[in-house]
Amino acid sequence: MHRRRREQVYQWLDHESVDAAYVTGDAEIRYLTGMPSDSVLVLFRTGRCVLLPWDVNLASERAEADEIIPYTEFDRKLTDALRAVLGDAAGPGRRVEIPADTPHPSLGDIRDAACGAEVVCRVDGLTGEISRMRSIKDDSELALLGRAAELTNKVIDELDEALGAGSLESELDIALFLERRARSLGGEGTGFEPIVAGPSRSNGIHAFPAFTGARFARTGSGIIDFGINFDGYTSDVTVTVLFGEPSAALRRMTDLVQQAYDESIERIEEGVDARDIARRVDTVFERAGYSMPHGLGHGIGLEVHEAPWLKSSGEAPALLSRGMVFTVEPGLYHSTDGGVRLENDVMLTADGPTIITTSRILRYA
Amino acid sequence: MHRRRREQVYQWLDHESVDAAYVTGDAEIRYLTGMPSDSVLVLFRTGRCVLLPWDVNLASERAEADEIIPYTEFDRKLTDALRAVLGDAAGPGRRVEIPADTPHPSLGDIRDAACGAEVVCRVDGLTGEISRMRSIKDDSELALLGRAAELTNKVIDELDEALGAGSLESELDIALFLERRARSLGGEGTGFEPIVAGPSRSNGIHAFPAFTGARFARTGSGIIDFGINFDGYTSDVTVTVLFGEPSAALRRMTDLVQQAYDESIERIEEGVDARDIARRVDTVFERAGYSMPHGLGHGIGLEVHEAPWLKSSGEAPALLSRGMVFTVEPGLYHSTDGGVRLENDVMLTADGPTIITTSRILRYA
Known about the structure:
- Two copies of one chain form a homodimer.
- Helix content of chain A is about 35%, strand content about 20%.
- Chain A has helices at about 1-15, 25-35, 55-60, 80-85, 105-115, 125-135, 140-165, 170-185, 250-265, 275-285; strands at about 20-25, 40-45, 50-55, 65-70, 95, 120, 190, 195, 220-225, 230, 235, 235-245, 295-300, 305-310, 325-330, 330-335, 340, 345-350, 350-355, 360-365.
- A six-stranded mixed β-sheet of chain A has the order 4-3-2-1-5-6, with helices on both faces. The first copy, chain A, has a four-stranded mixed β-sheet with strand order 8-9-12-20, covered by helices on one side. In chain A, strands 7-10-11 form a three-stranded antiparallel β-sheet.
- Chains A and B meet through α3 and α8 of A and α3 and α8 of B.
């Protein structure tokens, strides 16, 4: 499958008359070669690739590439590596595409290393193309995300049971419980640092620090936002927990979030513009005098935030397509009433949308 | 202290005839305002700053700035925010400095937002200046790093005791032990995801995944690399653990690493070029037929890797100065013999260098 993905890149290079390109993102390189970290991958229009890993021991176990050269041979200097590796793809009359996130001040040195080749740096170049490819999951990716969701659902149930029994006392207890279960169940780990915000901190969008040693107080609302990474692919869910009888304000926020969530899920289908779903949520919240400080959702995969983006403000239509896997996560945060967010993961296939995770608002006495 | 640091930036802006600048890095913004995450900070030559935080609840608790405007008011679009905030500092005849890591393709939109002001994007501009400022710690920073080191040393001793008693069985057990102790002792957390690599994985520079659910086997060499963050400032140490009688190869690697470490520590003093210390380590290892795939050390502070950089390959002299706090971490990694790294943190003050952490090579039967 890595080879098939690389073939698609080679075809794109050919179509765009690009002789060589390189990528530096961990997720992009894992997608194309299996190598999970700290590398540069150079791809040639001729259908060949060279991987430059920092850690050659790791590369020899994991990476699939036509040639592997230790990045340390070039002292991990990108321009030195390019000078050595580009070969015929550099020089006058050639075209070299570089990542869209290349810092502006480094362009000069990269141009030098390309020895007169045209250096192309654009948002909608290869960076955009790989992002588009990754936004439509292939079968192996759907299977991995399905496994990540299964593990997540098991952990949500365990969490529910433990919270019900009162056996997890602090934010720290909850966060470490999630990390332990993620790895014990065969995951690569949690997909990102879990956010465990007790009632005094649930007003944060992404509470800082993500969790503390303090007690997870059993009053008001708490937010637990986590993912489980299975073989590189991560889920992303948020569980809101309510203790006791919620205040009128909190009940209203909870109802609004649940309504926004239900309406959003109902509208998901192939061909729908995600902006419209997100705009409807904005309307529901605005009418009630609230506003949501973040997007409605985002793609998940090798990264926890990737295309597609479900938000009201996009300039171009964001059409939902089969193969996409993304979160739906309406949330409201009030400085004193606290926060409420409900987040699940949706997989859109030929059979329509499936909510693959089972997060919900949990209530305890 | 945040104000004093901002004053230094305003002076720099004035000296460079820059009317306004913005920074986006979490560590830079925490350094200048106390706000720890997800913000943009706009600084004006006139001695004023505007903070644009994503999370206003968090900002109201933590941030010190002349004005705070929710970034969501601009839909978290940088150019929209600049258009609204730059005011008199934009327009013809003005000069606006932007971060050195600004992606090349976004320059056009930023120029538009600056309405004819000259837009300056350079490695050695404000980004470099703040990095230089941060490389020389002030008294409050030295105190926080001292506290981080104290907690780290306590945890190293506890780890030693637990490993001796055999009470931590898996990589996961060790990693969660570190996280629990970091937060229980009052730290903000571990400073980065701990790397806990049992003997089968200690050949990795930064083992991937950082830790697994597998047993931490009690044979050969294992590597435990972690830091404790106290109020934003992190330590960074590596403990190598040896079980039983090491093989001849492993003993040789251990002796070489210890020798490189001891010689490096001995050479640290004000005014010394860190490249020379690192080059000496390269020589020691090369003579023995080894090579080290990473630098000798790096500054620590609000980020776990920051200036100064102790490596042999720098183009300019890297003179050690009082106020610097940095790691010394020689390491060797062999695909089958395993890995050995010894890393401690050094604080260089008027009284000379002090090794503030107490990591060492731990040996068990």
